[in-house]
From TrEMBL:
CDD domains in alphabetical order: M48_yhfN_like
PANTHER family linked: UNCHARACTERIZED PROTEIN YGJP, UTP PYROPHOSPHATASE
Chain ranges of the YgjP-like metallopeptidase domain: 44-243
Stored InterPro entries: UTP_pyrophosphatase-like, YgjP-like_metallopeptidase
Organism: Deinococcus xinjiangensis
Protein name: YgjP-like metallopeptidase domain-containing protein
Source domain of life: Bacteria
Amino acid sequence: MVALSLVRRAKSRLAAGVAGSGTSAAVWQIGDIQVELRRSARRRTLGLQVKEGRATAHAPASMSETKIRAFLELKRDWLTRHVRSQQATSAVQRGVHLGDSWQFLGETLLLQADSAAKKPYRLVGTLYLPPQNWQKHLQAWVSREVLPLYTELVTSYAEQLGARAKLGKVRVSATRSRWGSCTATGDIRLHWALSRAPLEVLRYVALHEAAHLLELNHSPRYWAHVKRIMPEHANYRAWLRQHGRELLLEE
Ligand SMILES: [Zn+2]
């Protein structure tokens, strides 16, 4: 964690006028860095902090935007340097940050913080997330949004395989160990993070599990069903072996 503070004595007329106001937050763009601005009535100084690749400015509730912006612009090089270097080192462990792009069912979304939001919401190509525990919010949002397509894919493959009658419920899973599963009663689960993979890879996993409705094993008979529908399936298995771990969000 790196913190930079600028001490500033609150002006008495302002300090007297803002009693009772709570905390508020907004996100500002300084150069190509996003800075979350947090205002608080109790705060007397303007401070700037960079933690885990994210910048936060803490300001007194009454301080003018012009003053805050001037301070941030003055510190722009410092900000950029610290945010970039922290992102570079944390990229290995965490991979994804607010402000990054996010693959979702073949589309590219931009992940943005919205500190006023209680839940994630999507506006065209941007997914806004509450910055606190944003990974958990993201995972919950994805898990909810992918269910219709996952269900449609599995159902369609079950139909093509002549196994529609054996299909139970389709669900979204979050296990660390497998991309999909199929039970003896025909319930199929597909991992939420498959929505980050190329669509062909997602389709392959949907087919892989649907084919287990016919054969609950990986025998040559099982693979013959898969091959019949998707002759190039080996490419997608190879992709998953090589890139699968990258799809998961590290805690
Ligand atoms: Zn299998």
